[in-house]
Amino acid sequence: MHFPLSFYVLLVSFLGFGVLTDASPTTDSNGYRLARGLPPLPPRNFGRNVPGYEPTPVQRARASASPSSVAKYSGRLQVRSDNGTTIGYVQDKSGLPVSHGSDLRISIAASSTRKEHLNIVATATALPSPFYVGASSQDSNATIGTGSSSTILFSNVEQTDPLSPPIATSNGYIESAIWALNSTTKELTAQYVNPDGTLPTTFLAYNETGSNLLFVGDANQTSNLVKLFVVT
User: Fold this and answer.
1) pLDDT over 80 (residue 9)
2) Shortest CA distance to 92 belongs to which of 102, 84, 101?
3) CA atoms lying within 13 Å on the CB side of residue 38
4) Using an 8 Å Cβ cutoff, are 126 and 160 in contact?
5) Is 224 helix (H, G, I), strand (E, B) or coil?
6) What does residue 128 show for φ and ψ, rounded to 5 degrees?
7) Which residues contact 11 (CB under 8 A, 6 or more apart)?
8) Contact 172/138 with Cβ under 8 angstroms?
9) Which of 29, 202, 210, 223, CA to CA, is 20 to 30 A from 147?
């Protein structure tokens, strides 16, 4: 059977077109481009704005705002007898006597996680440095506790770390971070640390002769136990 020449030309063209269209993938890729000797495609747009399109917003975690948990108390130190009678106020004078007139102004910072081993700081004071209210003794082995008549002086001292035993300074052996504050009643209580690290029950006593305060470890050794309060 003989076909005209035009038929063969049409057949070859059709087969060539089919081969060419099947050889090219629908979506070009770097693998196909490299196999054909072409350079790779440029990087895709990641995060950059394309004209006519809005960028996708990125949600960022927000830091949760937490109110400060630190509470500051300021005022004067009022001394009351065991029956609630006011004896006087700690004075802004050397030795921190208890009287009336030139009351010492103080500040205390407490928090929800720390309500004890606090410092009492003297503010706007005429006292020479140091400016913390705490315990002081000239005896390196000053120890108080049950059955002991020993006393520790209530005085202005340098700052020390919480639960630290007495630290040697030019003013004696001292501790400052010994206070706990009742946020409701504003009563201050002390926790003295003995040189051996033991924690005796600590009381405040009023020395009528010197009009000053002392720390004691046995309530039965004195008849002048007192309480200390922060008042305005």
Assistant:
1) no
2) 102
3) 10
4) no
5) coil
6) -70, 160
7) none
8) yes
9) 210
Q: What is the reported pLDDT for 127? A: 86
Biggest alpha carbon–alpha carbon distance for the chain: 144
CB atoms within 10 A of CB 122: 21
pLDDT at 66 over 90: no
Q: What is the pLDDT of residue 51?
A: 55
- Estimate to the nearest angstrom the gap between the alpha carbon of 122 and the chain centroid: 22
Number of DSSP helices (H) and strands (E) in the chain, helices first: 2, 14
Classify residue 211 as left (phi > 0), alpha (psi -120 to 50) or beta.
Answer: left
**Predicted pLDDT at 114:** 72
Q: What percent of the chain shows pLDDT beyond 70?
A: 71
Amino acid letter for position 152? I
CATH fold for the domain made of 72-231? Trefoil (Acidic Fibroblast Growth Factor, subunit A) (2.80.10)
d(CA 73, CA 88): 19
Report how far residue 201's alpha carbon sits from residue 220's, in angstroms, rounded to the nearest whole number: 12
H or E element, residue 23: helix 5-23
Phi-psi region of 141 (alpha: psi -120 to 50; beta: other; left: phi over 0): alpha
Instruction: Tell me the C-alpha distance between 201 and 216, whole Å.
Output: 8
Work out the average pLDDT over 60-74: 66
Torsion of CA 78, 131, 129, 216, to 10 degrees: 60
Instruction: Please check the confidence at residue 11 and state whether its pLDDT lies above 50.
Output: no
Euclidean distance between CA atoms 15 and 21, whole angstroms: 10
- SS3 of residue 24 by DSSP: coil
